[in-house]
Amino acid sequence: METVNFVEKFIIYIEDHLRECIDYDRVLEGMGVEPKSFITIFTSLAGMTPYEYQTRRRMSEIAHELHAGHLRLIDIVKYYGYRDIDSFKRAYFNAFGISPYETERQFDTLDLQERISFEVVPVDRPKYPSRSAYMDSFRLIGFVRRFSVDDYRSGMKYDFLAYLEENDMLNELLRYNDGAVKGIILHERYVDGGMELTVGVSSTLAGPFEETYTESSEFVIFESMGSPPEVSEDIYRYIFRRWRFKEEKDLNCNFSMEVLKSRNDFVSGDAKVQVWQALYQDL
Predict the structure, then answer these.
(1) What residue segments make up the domains of the chain, in order of their start?
(2) What CATH superfamily is the domain 2-109?
(3) CA 110 to the chain's CA centroid
(4) CA–CA separation, 239 and 90 (whole Å)
(5) For the chain, how long is the longest CA-to-CA vector?
(6) What percent of the chain lies above the pLDDT cut of 90?
(7) Where's the HTH araC/xylS-type domain (predicted)?
(8) What is the DSSP letter of 242?
(9) Which of 33, 73, 209, 251 could form a Cys-Cys staple with 141, CB 3.0–4.6 A?
(10) What is d(CA 261, CA 254) in angstroms, rounded to the nearest whole number?
(11) Domain covering 130-279: architecture
(12) In angstroms, how far is the first alpha carbon of the chain from the final one?
């Protein structure tokens, strides 16, 4: 346990010096630790060397900065110590396979590195309970909006949901919810180079709504309670930053599906939120 504690302290040191060129041998010797042995231990626990960890964490923080959009690219380049924009672009492409300018559109697909912690938790208590289920394609009816990929932001689906809630359209939709999945469904997918957003229900009934069909897929279903925009964002963060690395699953990100269940309204803080994460199937 003492070794794990020291590794965690060294991770804190790296986090405090992410922007710097760390001389690991010198720092460890100054801490009274034999560098070669420690780096071997660190690598076995973290799955990467201290240098690799620092590089991945720095790039992940930069990706968050670019996604937030509060700083200009030149300011980020200077802050993180790159000598010019071109060298930064090359490093960023090597890390993520995209240019910095593509970050906002592809942020949810990036292989980001969270800060490592060795806090001991029961292995059978994941952050979000989940279950696996295969679901054949089913008919989805509801209200549809279409956007260009460049204009679309994930928060727009909850703005649309709130608008429908305010105008009492969700209760009307639920009258047609006789399909296999119960609840309001938020369905996003890429179609013809654009983004199609459907807020609807699973139904076999004819009604005054647009219709589409979901993909047949193996899903992992994650569930929690709370405000849908906040809960769904946190679940996706958990899936992409932790769960998929532990489970080594091949995620299908061509579409997304969230199912909301509530006794009151669907934008409140006590809604049940399910994220249905599709998986690619092994052939």
Answers:
(1) 2-109, 130-279
(2) Homeodomain-like (1.10.10.60)
(3) 9
(4) 28
(5) 74
(6) 42
(7) 8-106
(8) I
(9) 209
(10) 24
(11) Alpha-Beta Barrel (3.20)
(12) 43
- Is the CA virtual torsion 141, 147, 148, 149 positive or negative? negative
Q: State the Cα angle at 160 between 155 and 161, rounded to 5°.
A: 95
Give tens-digit pLDDT for 151-189. Answer: 888 788 899 999 999 998 998 999 999 999 999 999 999
- 174 three-class SS: helix
The whole-angstrom separation of Cα 239 and Cα 74 is 31
Q: What integer is the mean pLDDT of 72-87?
A: 89
pLDDT in tens, 210-226: 999 999 999 999 999 99
Helix then strand then coil, % of the chain, to nearest 5: 40, 25, 35
- Give the residue among 182, 257, 253 at the shortest CA–CA distance from 213: 257
| Cβ pair 145, 197 in contact under 8 A | yes
248: its two tokens = 């080594």
Strand, helix or coil at 56? helix
Cα angle value 73/245/22 (rounded, 5°): 50
For 114, the token pair is 């969270």
Cα–Cα distances (Å) from 33 to 4, 16, 25, 27, in that order, read 14, 19, 9, 9
Instruction: Classify 132 as helix, strand or coil.
Output: strand
For the whole prediction, is pTM greater than 0.70? no
Tokens for 168? 């009492």
